[in-house]
Write a structure and sequence with these properties.
The chain is mainly alpha-helical and 174 residues long. The chain contains seven helices and no strands.
């Protein structure tokens, strides 16, 4: 009876926040990300499946399992979100042209490489809004849920500096 109770507690109780739970979550997310990308053919279906299955689903599942609203990164006010969107668009316009020029000067064959790369991935046939949604918006949202939401929730017993450092390292590793 005692062993059965321990087994049920370990496998069916929500994880306690801590370094071990965060490491287990990160390992689970990394494994799902690695294996889910090859389940379907095509760049966009593979990207959508890997983002939704590997990052968003585990984060939402953890939040539901723990019944923790803190595990979801939804505490952003609309004004802050609008300001971030405007800042993002303006910084993209301000940085993309100078960086593009610098890149073309330092790496002269980069334009031909970009065209070949886009042709191999068949990105020319995809509508531009769908491309932006798939390559910029979807990964940003899904990874925010996984890393800023679920992972930071699991790391909350640690010191704030340690939480930010570990979360940033794991995000960079993904």
């Amino acid at each position: 009876e005692g062993r059965r109770a321990d087994f049920a507690h370990v496998f069916f109780s929500p994880p306690a926040p801590g370094l071990a739970s965060a490491a287990a979550f990160a390992g689970f997310v990394f494994a799902l990300s690695f294996f889910s990308a090859g389940l379907v053919k095509g760049v966009l279906p593979s990207l959508w499946l890997s983002q939704l299955l590997a990052f968003l689903a585990p984060a939402l599942g953890l939040a539901l399992w723990c019944r923790a609203k803190d595990a979801l990164p939804l505490r952003v006010e609309p004004k802050v979100l609008a300001a971030a969107f405007i800042l993002g668009l303006s910084s993209w316009a301000a940085l993309s042209m100078p960086l593009g020029w610098i890149t073309s000067q330092l790496l002269p064959g980069m334009e031909a490489f970009s065209e070949t790369f886009a042709a191999k991935l068949e990105l020319d046939d995809i509508p531009y809004p769908l491309l932006i949604l798939s390559l910029a918006v979807l990964p940003a949202v899904c990874e925010e849920f996984a890393f800023r939401g679920a992972l930071m929730y699991l790391l909350r017993p640690l010191a704030p500096g340690s939480v930010l450092l570990l979360q940033a390292l794991l995000f960079g590793a993904s």
